[in-house]
Amino acid sequence: MKVLVSGSSGHLGEALVRTLRKLGHEVIGLDIVDRPFTTTVGSITDRSCVQYCMVGVQVVLHAATLHRPHVNTHGRQDFIETNITGTLTLLEEAVAARVRSFVFTSTTSVFGDALVPPRDAPAIWVTEEVISIPKNIYGVTKAAAEDLCQLFHRNEGLACIVLRTSRFFPEPDDDPAMRKAYADENLKVNEFLYRRVDLQDVVSAHLLAAERASTLGFGKYIISATSPFIAGDMAEVRADAPSAVRELFPEYEDEYSRRLWKMLPSIDRVYVNDRARRELGWKPRYDFQYVMDRLREGQAIKSPLARLVGSKGYHPEPFARGLYPLS
Question: Residue 261: which of 187, 160, 169 has the closest Cα?
Answer without folding.
Answer: 187
